[in-house]
Amino acid sequence: MIDVLERIIRQLKTETENQVFENKSILLLNGIISIFLTEISKKTGQPLKPIKTGFADYSRNRIKIERTTLKIIENIKKEIEPIVEYAGSLGEKGELNCNTKLIIQNGTITDSDFSPVKNVKKTPQKQFVNAVKLILRYIHSSELFSKISDLNDIESIETINSISDLLLKSKHFTLNGLSYSPSNGESSMILLHKELLDEKDIYLIDEPEKSLGNDYINDVIVPLLKEKALLGKKVIIATHDANIAVRTLPYNSIYRLHDKGQYFTLTGNPFSNSLKCIYNSRPELNWKETSMKTLEGGKEAFGERGKIYGN
Fold first, then answer.
1. Rounded to whole angstroms, how far apart are CA atoms 66 and 122?
2. At what angle do helices 144-152 and 122-137 cross, to 10 degrees?
3. Cβ-contact 222, 231 below 8 angstroms
């Protein structure tokens, strides 16, 4: 079997070499004939007679154009599955998703909800598609090349180089499967929740309580912050919210004190129950009392709320 295969390979190699030599010889001969004819034409002053009618090239070009335009139109008709991305949690309301609908410009789409994916304007997109459809219609007509010229004359036609340049997108939010427009406060919720879900080593957050409801802070944000701390992430937060400043059990609290026209920075934590001035220029403060005064309005305010709430 090996011997048979080796003989077949040798024969194939020999035949291939012969075929290559034959093709090259024909090309060389045709080249020489073409040069001879050109030189004879120069010497005699007689125009060069055509050696072929050109119909084959003419037909090939038309077939190539037809196939290309058919391929473009076939791709334009394709439907694209929408992209669904998780946007964030709105607490008790449910989970918010961002839906991106993608369509290909077919020459008739004017919906203002859709905008080009790439840096292409809608007008040349539509004009391009309609020009391609006209080219296909006139593929066997003498007007074909004027239609191709019309396509090339479209303003900003150079921005369209592939089907992806015809893509249009429309984005909208859904809550529990239904279309939904989040408020400014809910947008803040979504952004913060998404940032906290992303895997990072350091989180720097400035007053996350702004625009957020206390129930959302309690149910979503505080558990997330606790989880990050347990994972050993560095979470730095500037806040006036007691839930965030106290219930997350911070390893280090930084308290900025203003007294008699001067500012002092004190640090500490609930475990040592002390706040020490970083330059030792002031006596240390009680962490719990300072936190209660700064975040809760003082011990008295905290106590009054306790009476209202009960046990």
1. 25
2. 170
3. no
Rounded CA-CA distance 67/22 in Å is 32
For residue 100, count CB atoms less than 10 angstroms from its CB and return exposed for 0-12, middle for 13-18, buried for 19 or more. middle
Sorted by where each begins, the domain ranges of the chain are 1-48, 83-179, 184-250, 251-311
Q: How far apart are CA 60 and CA 15, in angstroms?
A: 30
CB atoms < 10 A from the CB of 245, how many? 19
pTM more than 0.90: no
| Cβ-based neighbour number of residue 196 at 10 Å | 20
Name residue, tokens 């895997």.
199
The residue whose two tokens read 């558990």 is: 223
Q: At what angle do helices 222-230 and 184-197 cross, to 10 degrees?
A: 10
Residues 249 and 270: beta-carbon distance below 8 Å: yes
CA 145 to chain centre: 39
Q: Which of 280, 272, 208 is nearest to 243 (CA)?
A: 208
**Beta strands of the chain (E only): which ranges?**
83-89, 95-104, 115-116, 167-175, 178-180, 202-206, 234-238, 253-259, 262-269, 274-277, 285-286
Interatomic CA distance for residues 311 and 302, integer angstroms: 13
* Contact by Cβ (8 Å): 63, 79: no
Task: State the amino acid at position 109 in one-letter form.
Answer: I
Classify strands 234-238 and 202-206 as parallel, antiparallel or unpaired: parallel
For 76-134, what is each residue's pLDDT tens digit?
999 999 999 888 888 788 888 999 999 999 999 989 899 999 999 999 999 999 999 99
